[in-house]
Amino acid sequence: MKMNRILGFFLLFVVLVSCKNDDGADVVTVEARLLSEVAVENDAEIKAYLETHFYNYEEFENPPAGFNYKITYDTIAGDNAGKIALINQVETKLITELSSTFGRTDDEEIQHTLYYLSARDGVGESPTIGDNAIVLYEGSLLDGTLFDASSVPSSQYLSAFVRGYANGIINFKAGEGPIDNGDGTVSFEDYGIGAIFMPSALGYFDNPITSLIPTYSPLVFQVDVLSFEKDTDFDGDGIPSILEDLDGDGNLNNDNTDGETEPLGVFLPNHNDTDDDQDGIPTIEEIELDADGNFVGFLDTDGDGTPDHLDNDN
Ligand SMILES: [Ca+2]
Ligand SMILES: [Ca+2]
Ligand SMILES: [Ca+2]
Ligand SMILES: [Ca+2]
User: Fold this and answer.
1) Are residues 102 and 138 in the same domain?
2) Quick one: 175 and 311 in the same domain?
3) How many helices (H) and strands (E) does the chain have?
4) From the CA of 37, how far away is ligand 1's center (Å)?
5) Which ligand is nearest to the CA of 237?
6) What is the mean pLDDT of residues 146-158?
């Protein structure tokens, strides 16, 4: 239930489109489908799409004059019968999701496949799941219905977004920039461009952010990873967010050292908590920083193996 709350919080955090209530007083009911059942169905749907579609890889290989570097898709048929299918160009990553994330009590733990496509490699590094990334994005359904798009570069703390999106972006490389154009504008060059195909459990599952997305729907995102803030410290406690993933599973939202003692209704995972052990001493005062305030390392004053900022009896 606690995870559901935090997911709710983060979903609110990422609402980038206007949500309208349905007109009238009709009661909308959502069928509570099993995570395991939806996972199989979504994966089959994504695979069928990837097997029967290609993207404009020839344009990315030899960009025509004025090419806009947008990924477009078409069906493999007719004149395009010889194109290389997306399924042969994507990479995959397995991500386990729990039904309890969605408030379910059936204790399902299901592995999902995330598919991602790099259309253009960036010249920079890749962000981690704990970083702020500066991106342009477009979200759509497999049938091409666009449900959200950025109009200007957007700074996004990746761990505040749905897992499929964040876990896709970290595979792409940023470019160079921001480059000051001297006229009050900045630009980015040679950044990574890619696409992400995700099952609904790595997206919005039974609680879409807009009525344009059907419940339990797979999602497709196109992203331009312009830049990122290396070693982002989201809660400002002196520790780069990525180092607050205690179990190292690539999910920052399931590490909450003081979860048992946080006040009712509060669930602050360590990357979003300025006093991680709730001993009243801010984390930033329980770690080692250099003279400029940069993170140096953890302290373990009583030598019990638990660092001071996670040790409430120290
Ligand atoms: Ca974790
Ligand atoms: Ca906490
Ligand atoms: Ca923290
Ligand atoms: Ca503390």
Assistant:
1) yes
2) no
3) 4, 13
4) 25
5) 3
6) 96
